[in-house]
Amino acid sequence: MILAAGSGTRMGGEIPKQFLPILGVPVLIRSVRAFDRCHSIDEIVIVTRESDIQTVEALCQEYGVSPKLKRVIAGGATRQKSAFLGVEAASKNCRFVAIHDAARCLITPEIVVSVLKEAYRHRAATAVYPIPDTVKRVDRRGRIKETLDRNELVAAATPQAFDRDYYIAVAAYAEKKETAVTDDNALFEAVGQTVYTVDCGGDNFKITTPGDLVRAEAALRARGEKETGK
Ligand code: C5P
Description:
Bound molecules: cytidine-5'-monophosphate
Strand order of the largest sheet: 5-4-1-6-10-7-11
Helix content: 25-40%
Order of helices and strands: EEEHEHEHEHEEEEHHEH
Strand content: 15-25%
Number of domains: 1
């Protein structure tokens, strides 16, 4: 499931970040393609803003996304809500779901498979990458309170993959308890369930600011990709 219902306000500009081209291919399409080309994925659901549904459908057609794409649906006010709506929209016979931020468009089919394998084993798994910086906890006035142990820290990325029934049970419980989370792993953490991690490498970063577009293009060129258009 590809999540693309955010407003992308940190990017500035008029075009939502999921539609910005990177070496000629829109961010969203890059993410969708990685799942489309992944042999472990049977079905794709895209969650977007209501006003973007037609644009997304047209882009998928233009870029030749396969019939694995089952639905393009409207998301909710938060990432948590959009993810839940997307999982509910998947076919009932889907046993596992992989939830992916559209903005992490350097994702590869190989990473998707690695995370899914871990989810098959443990029911809940997520892509993560090591944090190169020393991370501090600060108080409200910006004064350092604590240095966190770097060996114990990773950045949570996506895909985050789960046994579908398990996810729905945990997410519904979190909603009842009004637990607000910024990623799906946190739903499981909130009820004391274990999520296993897979190192996906720092290239799987989330396109957030204009500088990230340049960084993404550089990373793709390093992989040997050229400006392709379609
Ligand atoms: O806001 P943030 O960068 O954490 O969003 C992560 C992903 O969740 C993005 O791909 C964004 O499009 C998606 N999202 C969503 N629905 C929202 C908010 C964010 O699908 N209401």
